[in-house]
Each structure stands twice: as C-alpha cells, then as structure tokens.
Amino acid sequence: MTKRFLCSPSFLAVLFLLLVGGLIFRDFLFGGQVLLYKDIGSDSVNDYYPWFVHLSHYVRSEGLPSWSFYVGMGQDIFFFAGYLILEPVCWLTKELIAPALIYQHLAKVVIAGALFCRFLQLRRLNPIAALLGSLLLSFSAYMCMGSCWYPLADDVLCFTALLLAVEESIKFGRWFLLSMAVALIGFIDSFHLYLGALFLVLYVPARLFARCGWQPRSILRGCLLLAGPALLGASLGAVLTIPNLYTILNSPRGSGSTSFVSKLSAFPVFGFESELHNITAALRPFSNDLLGTGDDFRGWSNYLEAPMTYCGLICLVIVPQAFAGASRRHKIIYSLFLAGILLTTVFPWFRFLFWLFQGDYYRALSLFSILGLITLSMIAFSRFIDCRLNLWLLAATALVVVGALFLPLDALQSAMDPSLKKSAAILLILYILLLAVGRLIRWPQILALIIVALAAGELVFFDRITVSRRSSVSKEELAARVGYNDYTLDALEDIKGNDNSSFFRITKRRSSGPSTSPSFNDAMVFGYYGTPSYSSFNNINYINFLTAVDQIPPNSEANTRWSVGLLNSSLLSLFAGEKYALVEDPMPFQRALQYEFVKRYEKDFLFRNARFLPLGLGFDQYITQDAFLRLLPREKPVALLYAVVLPDKNEADKLGLTEANIFDIEAAARNVSLVDIAAARRKSALELTSFGQTRIAGNITLEHTAVLVVQTPFDRGWDAWQDGKPAPVLKVDVGLLGVGLDVGQHKVELHYRNVLLLPGLIVTLISLAILGMSLWRWPRVHLEA
Q1: What is this structure's pTM?
Q2: Neighbouring C-beta atoms of residue 132, cutoff 10 Å
Q3: What DSSP line would sit under 709-724, residue for residue?
Q4: β partners of residue 729
Q5: C-alpha dihedral sign at 122, 230, 108, 334
Q6: Given 564, 586, 609, which residue is the final one in a domain?
Q7: Do 548 and 649 lie in a common domain?
Q8: With contact defined as beta carbons under 8 Å apart, do 764 and 236 qualify?
C-alpha cells in the first residue's frame, strides 16, 4: 500500500512541485529575501502584512476578531476572520510572520497542484499529463502573482478544490467534498461565493453535457442535485460569510457610494478596448514579464490588473489539438469556452458584467481562463502520449503562435522585452519539434517526459523573473532599524512606559513601511491608536465623517481606500483624542502652543498634546447636520468641539438638547481659545475605568441631558448602558458613535458585537446538523450517465 502511494502521480507531483518551487523561490528559501515586495506588489507589506500582524496580536489579547481601534478610527475586523484559516501565518508571533510567508505560499502551491493532478486523473488523463498540468497550474501567472497578493493564491487553491469536488460528485457521487469546497471559497470573502456560483453555473452543465450528451432533463436533474450540496456549503460558512457581507455592505464600495456601476454599465456592449490593452492581452500568455516586470510594466493598466494568462508556452502550442479527434459535443463545449475568453477580452462590457460592473480588471476571470486552458491542453497532451497528434494542425499553430511574436507592428514590437521574446520563440520551437518528433518516431512517452522537463525549466526561468527580479524586503532589513523595525518602536516603548492612560491616539505622519508607496496601516503593526487606514472596505461611517470634515474629497473612490485620517488637521486630531505626535518635521508643532516637545528619535520628533481630550466627550448643545455641512472647512473642527452634530431637530427634541448658536461657532473659529475649549470638554468627558476593543466603561457627570460622542465610527453592533439600563445609541457627527445620557452622575458601559455574527452562527449550526443527517441518509448522489 505504501509503495503504491509513493508511486502515485499525486505524490510524485508533490515532490516535483517542491523541487521546481525550491528553484523558483530559492532567493526566499535559501537567500536573503522575504516575500514582501516594495514595488507594485507593495500591498504585501502595506496591507496584508499589517493585517497578519494585527490578527496575530488580536487573537492572543482579545480572542475572536471583532471591533478594533487599531484600524483607522475603529472598525469591525471580523471581515478578516477567514485569514485565520487561509493565512495560517496569522497564528505565528510577529517576528516569525515575514520569514514564514514563503512556506505558506509553497504549501498552497503544492496543495493546489496535488488537487489539480487528482482532478486530471479523474478525467482519465495520462499520469504524465496530470503531472504536467499540476506543474503548469501551480506556477501559472495567477499563482506567481499570488506570491505578493496572497489572496490570489487562495483563489487558485479554493477553485481547484471546487473543480475536483465537482468531478468527485459527478463521477462517484461524493457530494460532501463539494460542500466543503464551497464553504472554503466563502472563507475568502462573501463576494467569492458569487464567483463560486458563477463558476458552477458555467462548468457543471457543460460537464454534464460532455458526459451524457444533449439530455436536458438529465442535465437539469444533475444540476439540481449538485446545487443542494453547494448551497449547503455556502450556509456552512455562514458564521464567517454573513458578518463578512455586513462589513462589505457597510463600506463605500459595498454601499455603492463610490460604485463604478453607472460608468461601466454605460460602456457600449460591443465597444472595443484600447490598442495597448489588446497588445497586452495578446502577449501576456507568452510570459508575465514580456511587457516589463513590476513597476516597469509597459502594458495596459498595471502589473496586477492586466490579464494574468501565462500558464506555460506548451499550452499555446497544444491547446488546438484538443479539437482534433474530439466528439461533436466536446468541440461545442471547447468552442464556447474559447469564445467566452475572446468575448470578455475583445469586448470589455462582458468583463464588466462578470464583475457585476464593480471593477475594470481581470483577476478571477484570468484564473477561470487558466483552469480551462490547462485542462484542454492536458487533454490534448494525453492524446499525444497515446500517439494522437495532428501534424498539420501543429504546423498551422506554430505559424500563428510564433508569428504573433514577430508581427511587424511598431506598437507591438516596442512594448516587448527583446531577450524574453527571443527566449519565448526558442521555447515554442522546441516544444513544436518535440511534439512532431514524438509523433513521427512513435516514442511519445519519452518525448512527453522531455517536454515535462522542458516545461519545468521554462517555468523556473520565467517565474524567477516574476518573483525575484523585483525589489523585496531583505532578511537583513527585518533585523535592522528600518521599516517596521525603525525607531518608532523606541518612541512607543517610552510612551507606554511613562503614560498609563487607558486610551489615547498618536499622530504619526511619517510612514514606516519599506515600500515605495506610503503605508497607512502602521498602527496595526506597531500597536498604537491612530486615524489613517488603507483598506478596500473601510467603514462607511468613518469615510462619511472624514468627507464631512473635508479630509477626503467627495466621491473620491481612491481616498476611501487610502485614507490619511485626520493627519492634516491638528484641531480634528485634538477632537479625536490625540495625545502624542511623532513627526519628521518639528517646525509646525514647535510653533503650536498646545504641543510640548518630549524627545527626538533619529528622524522623528515626539510631541505631547497638552490639550489632550479623552475618548468620550459629552455635549448638551447640538447643531443640525445640514448646518454643519454649510460651515467653512476651518469652522468645522471648532464646531465639533462646541456641539454634537445631529441629523435633524427631531432627534434633538427626543434627547432634550438645546441648539447651539451657529454664529458663536463661526466667531470662535476666527479667534479660538484651545485652553477654554479643552477645559469645557474635559469637564463633561467620560472618565474611563476600563477599556477594551469591544468593552468600554467609565463614569461621567453631566449638568444637563447630553450626548456622549465616542470618537469612533458608528456601527449597529454597539450597545450602551447607563447605570445598567439600556441607553440609546445613535449616529452623530455625520458618522461617529453617540450615546444619549440623562443629567447627573452615571456609570456608562459600551459593548460591541457584530450584529450578524449570531445569525451566521445559527445558520452554520443548523447546516452542520443538516450535513450530518444528509451524510447518514444520502451519502452519495446518483447522476445518470
């Protein structure tokens, strides 16, 4: 039994993938680099790495991811709970995360390759073809790009698992794997459930048609039988996907406030893309880097958003052979698949439709293309091993594919890297010659093994350019006093050692991230409270507040993701609870009366804000939101320090607040006295007795009925109590959290819990019960052959 396993194609594929992966990523395994990039792949170091570090800290100190004050001005982070499953480095301590990224990626490479090898075996392909297919998928463009955009590797892993699960269900009736694969896709995020559903809708009917021919009732029955396990899989992951969906919907992208729908849907259905796009789409299958690497990419859009369709040059040569000798129904399916690729490439409206008009890029669309192209190519390669190859078709393919590299078009030729063009042409000719010789001398198995070896060499050669010839963080930098290990650590150590306050924010204007683009998530890495945040799904109330106080331009989609928070306003920072400022340029702070110099740390100067205001400010006066928005930008910070901003007068009447005189606010803005304002605010502020990410408690004394403004974004998951009795929670200041309080001295408590966590958990538990009962009652589904 052991000997049989050791000789199985899947085990051999694992060994082969480890060997090739070791050669491609040798600089990261045995050299001085870590899998964090400073160029166009800077999301690895500016986005993903901070999240990994923060989750590592959060699960140790707080437990299950929930609300975090380390993200912007505060946000629900259960959105990233799936990382705890798909990105296991999150369970490591901070110092181990960066070095472990390469091992995490290689693990995904090997698992995805082994799953795809098994899938090809179930399709009854030759073991050599299954081995080659696993190699091509594991080191395709999508997976190599996933070395710095880590969720792309998750896409490959999860959709390969889905592909195998469908085949297991159709072939053997083992539907359990389909449920597990769909649940796994949901762990990426809730939007991926849509992509998974789209994949199944396109693939399952085609697979059933290929299996049993045009039998509509059988195909419909098979689709419905498999739809059940797929829906069960989606509900199994509800404990993650439903709260995840809540966070998405509570972001500018999810709410549609910065949506591209109107713009992209208005594009002509049969309108064409630019010449540069078409050149990029035509050349990217030859190499990830034929049009340049990283920041030097000369193609359409950028290195990531452009088509990621490279999956080995052998696919370009042999994929037409899939049609030779195929049955009529298989030819129909293959033609529809290739037509789908062509349609979404030539006419961008259909690509926009794929993304529900939410984005103009390829990503998962490229993955679907790669999975199909490799499968068709390996079907043809398996036939080649069985001595079935159309030499005339091969010659025609050679003419088209090789000729495409040498078309006498100035725009095409000027875009290509000459050395890579030459290498690609030589490799294409070698593949063509090996295929022809293998067919002519009837030694296809020997030539097939040579082709596999050549493909491995090609992948090592091309993929090393993708992953290694770019600026990445070195292991020396991890230990040196640079990047996320700079002197900010010393400043924070001194602050925390000398200041035992429960909560305060730090303004840190110089980003520490080592990439060429600024990092906005330093707070998550260093462990302090700030206001900036870089995230695709920032809390919409956080963004609304920043827009209302003129820190973000209205309708700016980019600024809703790359948010500088309140870094550019000292008054707003004061309002938000700033107690320290760590800055590279000391001059503005030396001139400001409220700042006291503390100490210098190499590049940075540390100042203390003498007018510090705590978390939780009580206001017994209000102004309406409309009146606030009409104020001048310089008047708005003063207004926030004088009165609470409420949606309308009706809300104020319910709470019993008095309206502030807008003329007094305008006058104060012209001659503001921070001493008086800070003193007035501290008098009615919350005195914290305990502070946690999801639980806040304190005492407050109020001379009038008031609203407690907690300087964090409003979220329906917050509940408040006044002396043990529920207190009204409301949205104030165009997006912040407010609590209505009575006159007098009170003990105030606030608790946070994602509002959809419990419903999601209930759905998951019910689904587990259904799963157990179904496995006992119907362990297999029976599809008609």
Answers
A1: 0.95
A2: 31
A3: EEEEE--TTEEEEETT
A4: 739
A5: positive
A6: 609
A7: no
A8: yes
Last residue of some domain: 581, 609, 637? Answer: 609
Burial class (CB in 10 A: 0-12, 13-18, 19+), 13: buried
Structural domain boundaries enclosing 552: 478-609
pLDDT 10s digits, 655-708? 889 999 888 888 877 776 777 888 889 999 999 999 999 999 999 999 999 999
From the list 189, 167, 173, the residue with the least C-alpha distance to 87 is 189
Per-residue pLDDT tens over the stretch 60-103: 999 999 999 999 999 999 999 999 999 999 999 999 999 999 99
665 and 581, same domain (yes or no):
no
Separation between Cα atoms, residue 670 and residue 665, nearest integer Å: 9
Cα within 13 Å of Cα(5), Cβ side: 2
Supply 223's token pair. 């689709």
Q: Is residue 43 part of a domain?
A: no
Q: What are phi and psi of 304, to 5 degrees?
A: -90, -45
Any domain includes 166: no
527 and 655 in a single domain? The answer is: no
How many domains does one find in the chain?
A: 2
**What does DSSP assign to residue 489?**
H
**Rounded distance between C-alpha atoms, residue 193 and residue 181, angstroms:** 11
Mark whether 589 and 650 lie in a shared domain: no
Amino acid at residue number 22: G
Same domain (yes/no): 527, 639: no
Q: Where are the beta strands (DSSP E) in 573-717?
A: 578-583, 595-601, 604-609, 617-619, 621-624, 644-646, 658-659, 687-691, 695-702, 706-713
From CA 100, how far away is CA 118, in angstroms rounded? 27
